[in-house]
Amino acid sequence: MREGLIALSSARPRYRELMTRDLLLWALISLASKAPVAMAPLALVFLSRESPGGYTLGASLASAYVLGEVVGAPLLGTRLGRGRMRRELSAGLLAGALAFGALPFAHSAPAPVLLALAFLAGGAPAACPGGLRASLTKLVGEDLVPRALSAEATLTQCIWAAAPGLVVFLALQVHPGAPLLLGAVLAATASLLLLRLPEPRAAEPAGRAAAPMTRTLLSGWPVYLTSAAAMAMLATAELVLPALLEDRHIAVGWSGPLLAGFALASAAGALCYGLRTWPGSVRVQSLVLLAVTAACVCLITLLPGLGGIAAALLLAGVFQSGVMVTRNLSLRERLPEHAHAAAYSVMYAVQGVGYSATASLSAVALDLATPSVAILGGVAITLVITAVSAFAERGPKPRTAAEPPTFADADHCA
User: Fold this and answer.
1) Domain range annotation of the chain
2) What is the pLDDT of residues 192-224, one digit of tens each?
3) What is the pLDDT of residues 388-401, one digit of tens each?
4) What is the 3-state secondary structure (H, E, C) of 216-263?
5) What fold, for 211-398?
6) Per the UniProt record, which residue ranges are transmembrane (predicted)?
7) pTM across the whole model
8) Which distant-in-sequence residues (6+ apart) come within 8 Å of 94 by Cβ?
């Protein structure tokens, strides 16, 4: 009996099992493709800072970039399940690289030209995050998928933590267009490296009676909604943070280190989530983690001083990353394999919509109430949305007409 337990413990998947040639290549591609995304909004602001349009033009370019991501992700992502994913992702990254590279050289062009380039830079490679995530889950065995997604979340948060400082350094010390040129080089590098990655096996719908792709994707709406709600709650805290610091007579310059700490805490949380198997279904885990994250965000408004705000943000970051990993796992469980790449792209777009809407609502809330009330309002809205989506997820997993009932459905009924 003891020998069996030792064997079972040694057979448990570990992070070092992800250290294969294909996965290391995937990690390099992910780093090169996500860094331009993390750098783009702030880089566009610095590009326009000294132009006649100033910060207003920079904010408009950043908005056009995000709008390109929101529009491009679902439109291009729905094509990824039809095979030849590598070529489509590579072409999108190359088009995005050209747009990134053109922006610094066209900085004196009319505003519509710059807005079009920013839109193209965001839209052309918008299906890449979802496509790369789907590729990752096909490069590993089923037992390694949670750890692989946790490692992806860790890499993403590290990129987001480093990007602002890199943009500021390059824009102020080298050239205002240097961050965008670096983004162009990285996107082009990812485009070339993608062609060396193994082509993911194209999964086909089960049988002729399989549901259309649009209907299949729409059936995942509870997961999309919860993901957007979680993103919106943290976006509220991030966007209102400078106003909260000023309201408490704390230097606004602390907002940068605090947000960097939040991103690093999220990276650590994602890494910890993948270290072991946690009790309960991923749906239950997601709801618990989201509730704990909401409590930590509320603590931002209650704990006194800079230390209290920092502690609450760090705790929120640790648990928030677990929410995002479990949402990705929930989407895999809810939808068939052939829809995974497109579904990840749709979720990416919905999160962008949630973040953009939160930015507008935060501005309104700050005009009507204190920063603390604005944050608490964002948390309350998030919890209401989460309750709605959690109730919808209680139903059995959607399946095609050709797909027979599974033991999972029987367990749900029990």
Assistant:
1) 21-143+162-201, 211-398
2) 999 888 876 655 555 444 557 778 888 888 888
3) 877 877 755 555 43
4) HHHCCHHHHHHHHHHHHHHHHHHHHHHHHHHHCCCCHHHHHHHHHHHH
5) Growth Hormone; Chain: A; (1.20.1250)
6) 23-47, 53-77, 89-107, 178-197, 218-245, 251-275, 287-303, 309-329, 341-366, 372-392
7) 0.82
8) 187, 188, 191
